[in-house]
Amino acid sequence: MAPRSQPTARQVRLGTELRRLREAAGLKAREVAGLLSSTSAQMSQVEAGLAGVSEERVRRLAAHYACADERLIEALVTMASDRSHGWWEQYRGTLPTVFLDVAETEHHATFLREVVTSHVPGLLQTADYARAVFGYMVPELPDSELEPRIEHRMRRRVVLERGLPVPYETIVHEAALRILVSDRRTAHAQLLEVLRAIEEGQVTVRVVPLAREGFAGAGIEMMYVGGPLPHLDTVLRDAPHGTAFIDAESQLARFRALLNKVGKAALPPVESRDFIHRMTKEL
Description:
The structure is a single chain. By secondary structure, the protein is α/β, with parallel strands linked by helices. The protein has 13 helices and 6 strands. The chain has helices at 9-24, 29-33, 40-47, 55-64, 70-81, 97-107, 127-134, 143-155, 158-161, 174-178, 184-199, 249-265, 269-282, and strands spanning 111-116, 168-173, 204-208, 222-226, 234-239, 242-246. The protein has a 6-stranded mixed sheet with strand order 3-2-1-4-5-6, sandwiched between helices. A hairpin with a 2-residue loop joins strand 5 (234-239) and strand 6 (242-246). The radius of gyration is 21 Å and the shape is elongated.
């Protein structure tokens, strides 16, 4: 089978975890290749997410690596055996791959916690708000690229609206709610949309007021994505050339601490709802 040309973030993560298990066992790829009647090059492809691996092989590798974490093994087996193609695959070849990876990561999440300080969270944006955000890109996007981005952003909401929604909490700085990315009509409609999501129980929103003293975290933005167990959590952060997927345990611990720190500056959910409601009256 030819190597994948564009492995998904989930496929890359499976390979990364298998490599980490091998390295923890103190083994080289060439030492393990023989176990699977494979080659070092093929093992490298598996660990890079460029080649698939069967459930049976995942279990054999875990046993060879003396991994006793049954929950981790089962989680990796699930990742290896998942052959489903989600709605996001419709956009392959139309949107940058990272858009698909974000949607896939959210789809498999056990919970989502987000901190935003510059824009309303993507999962809560209206189409007009999203159009203003994407329309600000340089060079300007033609409609053939702009409209699929907006459509994709709207469809990401399925994780909040499906039968078993993903628990989602976002901490939003007041500045993100006040910035007029378009006009006042769009801003007003956007605030009403956030309130609708809150009142329908889809999300938990907490606001950090501009007047909050001692808050120096305005540059902290992230999406913390819960995995089937903490070891498989992921942090998504916007970077100059796309979204970065962070999964090193030391970094995950750092971002968990940052989440808790920012959370201490945010208003409780009910006060945040009332805060946003007052803002709608000001527009």
